[in-house]
Amino acid sequence: MTSGREERAMEVTAGGPPPGGPRPPHGPRSPHTTHLEDQMLRAYAYGELLPPRLAHADAHVADCPHCRSRLGDLGDRARTDTGWARLRAVMDVPQPGPVERALLRCGVPDHTARLIAATPALRRSWLIGATVTLLLTVAVARWGRADAAPLPFFVLAPALPVIGVAASFGPRSDPMYEMTLVAPVHGLRLLLVRTVAVVGTTAALVGAAAVAMPGPALRALGWLLPSLALTLITLALSARLDPAVAAGVTGGGWTLALVLTFGDGDSPLLSGTGQCAAAGAALAAGAVIALTRSSFDRGLPHA
Amino acid sequence: MNRAAVSARELTVSYRNFRALNGISFVLEPGVTGLLGPNGAGKTTLLRALATAALPDSGALSVLGMDPCTPEGRLGIRRRLGYLPQDPGFHPHFTAFEFVDYVAILKEMKDRAARHREVLRVLDAVGLPDRRRKKIKQLSGGMRQRVALAAALVGDPELLILDEPTVGLDPEQRLRFRELIADLGDGRTVLLSTHQTEDVAALCRRVIVLDGGTIKFDGEPPALAAVADGRVWSSEQRDPRALAGWRTGVGTVRNIGSPPPGVPLLEPTLEDGYLLLLDATTARENVA
Q1: From A64, A85, A175, B284, which residue has the greatest number of CB atoms within 10 Å?
Q2: pLDDT of B40-58, one tens digit each?
Q3: Which residues of chain B have a CB within 8 Å of the CB of A300?
Q4: Cβ distance A10 to A56 under 8 Å?
Q5: What are the chain B neighbours of A294 within 8 Å (beta carbons)?
Q6: Contact at 8 Å (CB) between A288 and A236?
Q7: A146 shares its domain with A11
Q8: Same structural domain for residues A170 and A36?
Q9: Does some domain include residue A285?
């Protein structure tokens, strides 16, 4: 450890810059009354300082325009610029927001975390709205008529991730759609990153709501495979349709099919056969997405 | 050596069954080129086609030596392109830094330290080093435009496409933007779409005028002004024979059209040439 006395010994008192010495061209006056010694500054410029002196010099140079200016004159300019840019890239970077911090703690790479943080359906307003709606459907299921009460939950549970995915990309919901479209990152990759984030989040919410549903626990999980199938069908349709329209088609189709087949608190769509059909539909939709992946970097027709 | 960054031949692009560009041909070389035209002329469609956001129906288009109609060509162009759309769109909860960092990630910059250095560099370049921690929603319109321009500059692109970047800026902000764009045009190709003839006069070494999906003029700004040589005159009252006329700050009326004999002729401006080139009365509505 460097003691405070040692640190002070590395600095020289300055009643201003040395005679003939450089002043910062336009910067504010230094808030420091002491500055780094020439020898130390030179060692710093050439990357020869070791911790803990390096940390002290870093902190001082970051905060002292006068020493930064001297640094430029003492060391090799290019080397100094590179070093200073590296230092700025560490010190000047704002802290990420709470969503990104949580993702980083889970081991998500920082570039992926930022892509996810820009997902509209992960905003607080969306999550609160989804939670409240789910709670209402659970309340209806617990206290409504036994034969029809679970219907709102089974309509909403698979559709919620679909709505979230549709709200996460496309010209209507992504304010940066145009800039994203002309970026080299592949459209399908961005779409899948956001889909996984949205489906993961909404599935956690729906899963928590399913626990509170009356009846056998296994039946309450009947929404899972239909949800996956509807989400993948929506993505497959999004290569050609606006995602909001695609979500309307799949969500509307699911609602209609469920309402028409629902009776005595259950539906064939939630049975074993229905689950198998949902799994088959999910696989087929996944294959279509893989085959049409190049469509996702062309943008929507007429968007 | 071919210096053309963009080369279009008989380019046709449709939008919602409407032919927005109708067989246009041109080349773009390094420097700032202005793109003028009334609303609906096809300017934004042209910029979107060059930026790979809209695909041509027919004709040949080469951008930075690549074909935007192929997946490989699109990817190659996107890696070397800077694009500022008319409405950039922001995630309002992002800070200026996060927004530009997000665009850098979209531009495939995965190394965190190198990416952050680049973000700081472009924010410095547009004069926003001290605004990086501000939320986008807290920034003024001019600041937001500069943030969007910073995003377009990430990766030091060879081709810069700017769609009406000075809209909504006050005169001082426009002046700063002009300085920036003038610097950017040094050594790279910049295509600047605008309604402001003053911007073109101040910045561009070349101007293209689009109208109805076709090119009406392609040349140097003085040549566009020269279209109005001998066709601008002043009078005390608006001359009924003029195609357009408006009272100026000094109290006289500036008329353009075919002047009657003996009237005092005025030096034409780029705006006069532009108005005469298009239908004067309709074009007047589109000039600020």
Answers
A1: A64
A2: 899 999 999 999 999 999 9
A3: none
A4: yes
A5: 71
A6: yes
A7: no
A8: no
A9: yes
Per the structure, the count of domains in chain A is: 2
The last residue of one of the domains, among A46, A67, A91, is A91
A302: in domain: no
In whole angstroms, what is the distance from residue B255 CA to residue B239 CA?
A: 7
DSSP character at residue A298: T
Task: Identify the residue with better confidence: A126 or B67.
Answer: B67
Instruction: Return the higher-pLDDT residue of A293 and B207.
Output: B207
Whether residue A84 is found in the same domain as residue A168: no
Cross-chain residue pair A118–B117, CB shorter than 8 Å: no
For residue A111, which residues of chain B lie inside 8 Å, CB to CB? 105, 109-110, 112, 115
CA–CA gap between residue A230 and residue A236 (Å, rounded) = 10
pLDDT digits (tens, 9 = 90+) for A163-195: 888 887 777 778 888 888 899 988 888 888 888
Question: What domain range is A115 assigned to?
Answer: 100-297
Top residue of B84, B102, B119, B123 to mutate, by most chain A CBs within 10 Å, is B102
Classify residue A216: in a domain, yes or no.
yes
pLDDT tens profile B98-145: 999 999 999 999 888 889 889 988 988 888 767 677 888 888 888 888
Convert A228-237 to b/e letters by CB count within 10 Å (16 or more is b).
bbbbbbbbbb
Enter the ipTM.
Answer: 0.82
Residues A119 and A84 in one domain: no
Give the span between the Cα atoms of B94 and B144, in whole angstroms. 12
Cβ of B106 within 8 Å of Cβ of A185? The answer is yes
Which among A114, A123, A175 has the least Cβ separation from residue B105?
A114
Statement to judge: residues A123 and A72 lie in one domain? no
Whether A140 maps to a domain, the answer reads: yes
- Residue (of A294, A177, A292) closest to A244 by Cα position: A177
> Rounded to the nearest 5°, which phi and psi values hold at B264?
-70, 120
Q: Tens digit of pLDDT for each residue in A65-117?
A: 888 888 776 656 656 666 666 666 566 677 777 778 888 888 888 888 888 88
In chain B the domains, ranked by start, together with CATH numbers, are: 1-80+158-219 (3.40.50.300), 89-156 (no CATH), 225-284 (no CATH)
Are the Cβ atoms of B110 and A109 closer than 8 angstroms? yes
Dist CA A8 CA A35 (whole Å): 9
